[in-house]
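Recall that a protein's primary structure is simply its ordered list of amino acids. Everything else, from secondary elements to tertiary packing, is in principle encoded there. The following example makes that idea concrete.
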Amino acid sequence: MLRDMPAKRGQVRNEEVYSQIIDWSGVRYKKITCTDIDRAMCLMDMSISGSIDIQGKLFILIDVKGEDVPFENGGQKWHYEALINNLNKPAYAIIASHNTPLGQEIPAHECVVEQCYHGKKMGWRKPKSYTELKEAIDRILIKHGFADYVDQQFKKGMQ
């Protein structure tokens, strides 16, 4: 497991895992796609995989982790909470997992949501049932009045 590997704090522990590409093409809303900020932010223990900003009115931070990498209490969780709590717009942090083998692109839309944070009042919550990342984002967009960004097929399934 990655956490068992010796490394200095902030040091990339496994370059092969760090360099695994996330395919965001399945997470597209009109002309908006997820911004891949992995390389800019990832130090393995402090990785933010991507984000979505809808017209400056809604922000979604996404962290994609291997299914064997735990998301624990501590610095990373506090960091996401501080980011979300200090934005002056509706904002979410979504932690999702994947089991894509090394060397293959991770299909972001198929990642499984493990936890979601929507501010101090709501706190961290786990989905009540199996939820893929694209579905979770679609639900957030609909909740905040951006239903026109969501695929018609998904909206029909929610009725």
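Residues 1-5, 37-46 have pLDDT under 50 and may be disordered. The longest strand covers residues 58-66.
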